[in-house]
Amino acid sequence: MAGLNQQIWTDVLVQAFRATEEASFLAEIPDESRFVSATRGDNEIIHLVDVGADPEVLINNSTYPIGFSQQTDTDIPIQLDSYKTKATKVTDDEIQYIAYDKIKLVQEKHKNAIMRVKHNKALHALTPQSNKAKTPILTTTGEDDGAGRKKLTLKDILKLKRAFDNQKIPADNRVLVLCSDHYNDLLDDAIGKTAFNGQFSDEVGGLLNARLYGFKVYWYVDAPYITVSSLTKKSFGAVPAAGDFQASVAFYAPDMFRASGMTKNYADEPGTQQQAWFYNVRHNYIVLPRKERAIAAIVSASA
């Protein structure tokens, strides 16, 4: 079982994580992994720097000395989340009598499990906690879908654009991640009704082939939930209740960050009692906004 060599399998796993990530909405976000440092044991943190306010710009200045302002940098340490899978047991008998590499299949399943959960948590972290001036949560205005919610319309996305415009968020690098309900609403609305007819039919890695009002658009199936009555985000992993709907999430990519830390494989070789391999994975990762700004969400209003 030389294939279980720690370094070989870890390298393969890291490459697989990166390949999947670069095909998702997270590829739009700056990767700050180079700033990750270890603390005690396997704990890792990333140090972000708050560089303070932008410098003042003078026009046609005629007063000297011109003056100066002090820039005070602030260190913001953030601990990476630690994702660990429960171990999978593979017996010696299974390895001896099956015709495929079960260890490799097990590793792939562990990688996919971590990838799914960390991407879910990433989109949840990019979703506003509540409706505020710099983190607006908008509601849909379309017709009743027959299941108790109002559909998303193109006018709702235009309203999102206006919310970003009003905050003077740069036009480049705006990203919109549609939840399934809203993506399906646009598909239904686009059939023979708007100039976007046919533009939403070809997805590559969740990326749609049309921009909407300046937003680069992705589709993600496991979007976060928002309680419509209070316009507050449900905690990660919370079971949705009546009045909770999945939300579409928008962000200005340069104001977000992502960072990967340690990835490690663990394997117990067969012993005298179990006569089986045990395998699991640990992966450190984080996605967050740099500040509480430049993020927004659209949630379906109750019909």
From TrEMBL:
Classification via Pfam families: Phage_capsid_4
Protein name stated in the entry: Uncharacterized protein
